[in-house]
């Protein structure tokens, strides 16, 4: 299963999700999809109505995240924020409100349909301090040392090259900048048949890092003050709901997921004296 194969399947899934929202539905494709309530135990009940009161409904319906990074990232007025894998734009629009008119919120996504939906949501929200960029999280189209805070919502696990994602995050963050990401993380041994399933990868399961491995990769990229805070641990019943739309043998897999997968808030800081890490040879960014 190559990174190219994974990206192709992810583009198709998230492109179709955006089209469903444009047709008046939600991003979910399974039987558990209910307008405004989330697709499953990963995506449900992430945002309060007080947070999203001025956010277009389409941005909320397009959310396929596993947390609420804007509520935990402690954003300040005037900061520059980048959302990796911004989808329909809900976290970008929420971030834009927090950083205010002197700040800026960027959203980065590789799916044309999601970018079109996000830009329409930006227009509806009247957000002038928002910009959506087309690109991949392994190759961020922003300069070194240009961002105060990086957020992301259940996207890092989807990448086939997480080391490169974290190096790119480190590169674009300013010294002292913060990495504040919601993602699915694992604890304990995960069966090879789960790790090797493209369908489960796209379902935010197979590609999830173990918490110790996530810490190691963040440290290798140069980050300090690393912390992983579980926000929800999934049970077998949750797994059945999560996996019901993924075309896999739910009865066989759900017991293996019990207690081993969790939504978590991942924090790290780029040291104040650090410069961006850039490639110094032909293979260092591969």
Can you walk through the features of this model?
Strand 4, helix 7 and strand 5 form a beta-alpha-beta unit. The relative contact order is 0.14. This protein starts with a helix and ends in a 17-residue tail after the last strand. By secondary structure, it is α/β, with parallel strands linked by helices. The protein has one domain (3-269): Rossmann fold (3-Layer(aba) Sandwich). The chain has 12 helices and 8 strands. It is 36% helix and 20% strand. It has helices spanning 3-22, 49-52, 57-61, 69-72, 90-99, 112-125, 162-172, 192-195, 198-202, 211-221, 236-243, 250-257; strands at 80-84, 104-109, 130-134, 147-153, 173-186, 209-210, 224-233, 261-269. It is globular, with a radius of gyration of 18 Å. Strands 1, 2, 3, 4, 5, 6, 7 and 8 form an 8-stranded mixed sheet that branches.
CATH class: Alpha Beta
Distance between the termini: 17 Å
N-to-C SSE series?
HHHHEHEHEEHEHHEHEHHE
Query: Structural class, please?
Result: alpha/beta
CATH superfamily: Vaccinia Virus protein VP39
CATH topology: Rossmann fold
| CATH architecture label name | 3-Layer(aba) Sandwich
Count the helices. How many?
12
Backbone shape = globular
Helical content band:
25-40%
Low-confidence stretches: 29-38, 279-283
Name the average pLDDT. 82
Tally of distinct domains? 1
The profile of the biggest β sheet is: 8 strands, mixed
Radius of gyration: 18 Å
- β-strand number: 8
What are its keywords?
286 residues; alpha/beta; Rossmann fold; 8 strands
